[in-house]
Amino acid sequence: MIKVKTFYVYILSCSDDSYYTDMTNNLEQRIIQHQLGNNPDTYTFSRRPVLLKWYVECNDPNDAIRIEKQIKGWTKRKKTAIINGQWDDLVTFSKNYTEHGNDKSSTG
């Protein structure tokens, strides 16, 4: 029997109210590493404690890499939407500033 390896793309909430996105093949171990702060050169080291807010499982590492890169390019508002399961908001938040009603030059 062939064992399929699982990869995880995840979003952490950091103590400074920022988000950290990464991927791993062992989510539980990776979260522990973030909490312990084994490497002072990492983003999360000075932003502990961290809290796992969202993750997705992938069987193909290329899919995990693609999703990770996509999410890393998102605004905090889009990351918050995915964490909260507000999938429809991802489309809204992808439009430019004037397309979703925030153009200051328009009147009401």
Estimate what percentage of residues fall within beta strands: 15-25%
Secondary structure class reads: alpha+beta
> What's the main sheet like?
3 strands, antiparallel
Q: How many strand segments?
A: 3
How do the strands line up in the largest sheet?
2-1-3
Number of helices: 4
Determine the mean pLDDT: 88
Q: Overall 3D geometry?
A: flat
SSE string, helices as H and strands as E: EEHEHHH
Low-confidence stretches: 103-108
Radius of gyration: 17 Å
Report the helical percentage: 25-40%
Cα distance spanning the termini: 63 Å
Give the topology.
Layout (H helix, E strand, L loop, with lengths): L6 E7 L5 E6 L2 H10 L14 E8 L2 H12 L3 H8 L3 H8 L14
Antiparallel strand pairs: 1-2, 1-3
Helix pairs in contact: 3-4
